[in-house]
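Entry:
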Amino acid sequence: MAHEKGKPVYITKNGEGDLVLMSIDAFEKREAIIDFEKREAIIDLKEKLLVAEEQRLSGDKTIPLDSVFKESRRKLMKNYDVELLPAADDALDNIFDYI
């Protein structure tokens, strides 16, 4: 059936998705698309980093990293109108500390 229609067959168990059956050709095409998208994202990131480094070397104003994190956290809290539980707040702090 996956060969005839050229589309994956979704198999459920107790009404929940469990398996996907697809032809090797469909799988390889899907993997090629994902690989291409990953490469494009990496190229885009490298281009942005190059621009940022050129700006830094030319003396453009920089922003301290801790200020970026504080502003990111403020926008996250404001835009999503959330209050974090203490454990989540600590986890977010740990993420920013790690970065």
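Residues 24-57 form the longest helix (34 residues).
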